[in-house]
Amino acid sequence: MTSLEWVDQELENLKNEGRYVPIRILETSQGAHVKIEGKEVLNMCSNNYLGLANNPEVKKAVVEAIDEYGIGAGAVRSIAGTMEIHMKLEEKVASFKHMESALVYQGGLLANLGTIPVLVSKEDVIFSEELNHASIIDGMRLSSAKRYVYDHMSVENLEKNLKEHRKEGKRSLIVTDGVFSMDGDIAPVKEIQELKDKYDTMFYVDDAHGEGVLGKNGRGIVDHFGLQGKVEIEMGTFSKALGSMGGFVAGSQKLIDLLKQRARPFLFSSALNPGDTAGVLKSIEIMERDDSLVKKLWENANFLQKGFRDAGFRLTSTKTPITPVVIGDEKKTLELSNYLYKNEGVFASPIVFPTVAKGVARIRVMPSAVHSKDDLKRTLEAFENGAKALKIM
Questions:
Q1: Closest CA to 48 of 26, 68, 63, 70
Q2: Which residues lie across from 361 on neighbouring strands?
Q3: What CATH number labels 56-289?
Q4: CA–CA separation, 188 and 270 (whole Å)
Q5: N6-(pyridoxal phosphate)lysine: which positions carry it (predicted)?
C-alpha cells in the first residue's frame, strides 16, 4: 500500500454515503441564469443576493481601478501594500456600519482567523454559538482561549455558561453568526447584547449573511436591531451581497489600530486587489443610494418560501431569504439536486454532512434581487416534479 492509497477509500466512502458533492463549473458571469456544460440553467444557489456580482456600474468601477492602480497590491498592508483605495473603502465601511473605524481583509474567513486571536488568548474564555461558521471555529482554535459552546439560539443557555465560566478568563468574548447560513434564522442579538453588559464581556457578530439583506439599505444585523454603538465588533464579507471579494471588521479606532499591529492576515498576506476593493466601494454606494434591490430580494424570498410551504415542502424556521428545503436523507438529497439539474435545468446544490448534521440534508435555495417571478415559479415547479419522480414527498 502506497502512502496515499487511503485517499481512494475515503473518496469511495463519501460516494457510498451520498456525501460526494459534484462541483459544477460556471462558464458565464454570475447571475440568475448561468451556463454550465454548455447549457443555460437557472441559478438558485448563489450568495449573490443583490445581483451586484455582474452589475454594470460595479464592473465599470473595477476596470477603472485596475487602470489606475494595477492588478495587484504587490505587498502586505504593513509594508507597501496599503493603497489609497484601501483607505477609502475602510472609511466607507466604517461610515456604512456606523462604527469609528474598519479594517479590510482579503476574505471573510481571514477576517475571523485574523481578529479573534487578537481579541482573546490562552488566558481568556470564549462563549460560542453552537452553529457558528467554520471560520469562527478555526479562529477560536488559533486563539488558544478556553471555549464553551452554548445551545443554538438559546439566550438562557448562554447565560448559564456565562454564570458558570465567565470568571475563568481574564478577558471574555461572546461570538455568534448574525444570520445562520444553513438555516436562515437570526441570532437574538439584542438579548445577547444585554448579557454582554451584565457579564463584562466583549461581543463579536459575524454578519456575513446579513450584509445587504438586513437593516436600513442592507446595513446588517446590528442596524436591524437598532444596536449601533452597542456591539463592539462587527465582521462581514464582501463576497455575498456585495458581489466582490474580501472581508472586514468594524469597531473602535483603537481596536482597529491594534489589529493592524497584530492580525496575521494583515501582516503576512498581500492586500486585497485594487479591482476587488473598487467593486466593493461601488456596491456600497449603490446600496446607500436606495433600497430597491434589498426590497426586491425580500419580495422574491417571501414569494418563493410561501410557494414551497404551500406545496408541502419542509423548510427550516428561516427568517431571511435563505431558503433551505430539508430532504433529510443524504442520497435522496443528491438525487434531487441531480434531477433538478439534468431534467429541469435548475442549478441547486445539495448540502450534506459535515456542512449540516446527519439526517437533515437539504437543498439551500437562494433567491436574489435579479430573479424574475417566472424564475421562481419555474423553481417551484421543478422541485415538485423532482419530488414526485423520486418519491420524496
A1: 26
A2: 328
A3: 3.40.640.10
A4: 36
A5: 240
Task: Establish whether 3 is a catalytic residue.
Answer: no
Catalytic residue among 46, 181, 244, 337: 181
Which residues make up the CATH 3.40.640.10 domain(s) of the chain?
Answer: 56-289
Domain 17-49+291-389 is classified in which CATH homologous superfamily? Aspartate Aminotransferase, domain 1 (3.90.1150.10)
- CB count within 10 Å of CB 195 equals 18
**Which is catalytic among the residues 209, 224, 282, 371?**
209
Cell 471573510 belongs to 108
133 is catalytic: no
Give the per-residue pLDDT at 141: 97
Asked about 181 being catalytic, the answer comes back as: yes
pLDDT, tens digit, 9 for 90 and up, residues 135-151: 999 999 999 999 999 99
Q: Kindly report the length of the chain.
A: 393
Instruction: State the span(s) of the chain assigned CATH 3.90.1150.10.
Output: 17-49+291-389
- How confident is the model at residue 299, as a pLDDT? 98
Segments in the chain below pLDDT 70: 1
The span from the CA of 10 to the CA of 380, in Å, is: 35
**pLDDT tens digit sequence for 194-235:** 999 999 999 999 999 999 999 999 999 999 999 998 999 999
Q: Residue 247 is placed in which grid cell?
A: 472581508
Q: What is the pTM of this model?
A: 0.93
